[in-house]
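Below is how a single chain appears once it has passed through the pipeline. First comes the sequence as given, then the structure the pipeline wrote out for it. We keep one example in the README because the format questions we get most often are answered faster by looking than by reading.
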Amino acid sequence: MLRSSITETRRKKRGSRERVIGSIGLACGFLLSACNTTGVGFDYETKLARFVVETEQQGAVISMPVSGARIRVNPKAVLSEYDIVNVAVADLELGPCLQFTLTRQASLALYRTSVNNLGKLLVLLVNGKPLGLRRMERPISNGIIHMFVEVPDADLPDLAKDLKGTSIEIKNKMGG
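Resulting structure:
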C-alpha cells in the first residue's frame, strides 16, 4: 500500500514536470516562430527576376522596352528569384545600375554559364518582361551581377526593393 502510494506520487510529479517542460517548449516555439515570420519588414510589390541567355539557335525573341533591341534568348532561365540574396542600387562609372548578389550555388552556376557563353548577353526579365542586359565579356566569378536596366534612374531604388522583397518572401515561405 505504501509502495503504491509512493509510486503514484512519483508519477504525478513526473507528469507535472513533463507538462511544465512541454509548456515551456510550446512557449519557446511560439516565440521563435514569431521571429521567423514570412514578412520582410518593408512594403514591396511582387517582382520576379529571371535571367536568360542569348542564343543563336531557336528561342524566344524579346524586345527591350526603351532601346528596342531585339534578342533571341533561350527561354529557360539560368537564374531566378530563388537564387538572389540581395538587390541594391550600385553607382558605377557608367551610372546607376542594379546589383544582384547571388547564393553560393547560383554563383557557381553563373560562373559556368558565363564561361560557356562568353560574348553573349545575359538578359534580366522582371515578371516576364525584359528590363536589362549585360554582355558576358569575361567569366563572372564573384556571384555579383551589375545590370543596367531600361527604367528611369529614379525608379531604381523601388525596383531593387521590390526584387529583394520578393526574393526574401519566397525564401521565407520555403523555409530558408
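The beta strands are 49-53, 60-63, 70-73, 79-80, 84-92, 95-102, 121-126, 129-135, 144-149.

See the next section for the split statistics.
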